[in-house]
Recover the amino acids of this structure.
């Protein structure tokens, strides 16, 4: 994301409620303006990952088959778009201040979803009601009034990439690893510790255990079975590097 005035790149963690550039002071967006977004699912039609699910602000769900795309309108401002292909997910935050074209595809070599986001020059003024009425937008597959929970109820729970027995300190439980987070659920305790990959600084080997260093120098240590240890270490290292850049 970058400021349309000074062209400087904005921090990915910038608050979605902020409506001025912290670098030059210019207003970042106008919520009263409407823009067009086109998202293409790039890839072969016989892609084993199947259709691409596209969640806009955890409220609207679109579905795109490989080789096709979706087209919708959206107001100016910060928005979150989540892509899901098979068990893989990728979430991006985008500042909408013009029309955009986004290309998303499942990379079979890395088993990751990759995106290419391009603003369209000369569209910063937005579109008039007449222009909007003249377009044929993609019908959503689903709309949820209760956010992500609504999609989970209808689509079913997301399957983890790894689900292993683990110990953390004196606690024994299950460690589930997804494409964007890890969850540790201790036995006999009705509480799950969720760690988003975006908040993980590093993952290190520590005497046969996994040392997860989070922001604020917080460490979470997990001991897991030896037969999956190396594979999970490689997976976590690659995923966190991809998410944090």
């Amino acid at each position: 994301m970058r400021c349309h005035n000074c062209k400087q790149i904005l921090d990915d963690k910038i608050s979605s409620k902020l409506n001025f550039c912290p670098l030059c002071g210019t207003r970042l967006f106008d919520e009263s303006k409407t823009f067009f977004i086109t998202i293409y699912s790039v890839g072969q039609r016989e892609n084993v990952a199947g259709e691409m699910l596209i969640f806009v602000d955890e409220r609207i769900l679109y579905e795109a088959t490989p080789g096709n795309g979706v087209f919708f309108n959206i107001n100016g401002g910060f928005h979150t778009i989540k892509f899901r292909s098979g068990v893989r997910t990728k979430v991006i935050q985008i500042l909408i201040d013009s029309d955009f074209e986004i290309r998303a595809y499942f990379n079979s070599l890395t088993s990751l979803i990759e995106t290419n986001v391009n603003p369209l020059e000369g569209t910063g003024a937005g579109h008039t009601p007449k222009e909007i009425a003249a377009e044929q937008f993609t019908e959503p597959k689903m709309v949820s009034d209760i956010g992500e929970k609504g999609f989970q109820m209808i689509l079913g729970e997301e399957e983890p990439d790894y689900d292993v027995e683990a110990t953390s300190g004196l606690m024994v439980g299950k460690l589930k690893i997804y494409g964007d987070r890890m969850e540790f659920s201790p036995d006999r305790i009705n509480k799950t510790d969720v760690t988003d990959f975006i908040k993980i600084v590093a993952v290190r080997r520590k005497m046969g255990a996994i040392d997860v260093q989070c922001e604020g120098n917080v460490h979470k240590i997990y001991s897991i079975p030896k037969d999956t240890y190396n594979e999970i270490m490689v997976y976590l290292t690659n995923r966190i590097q991809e998410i944090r850049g």
In short: The mean pLDDT is 87.
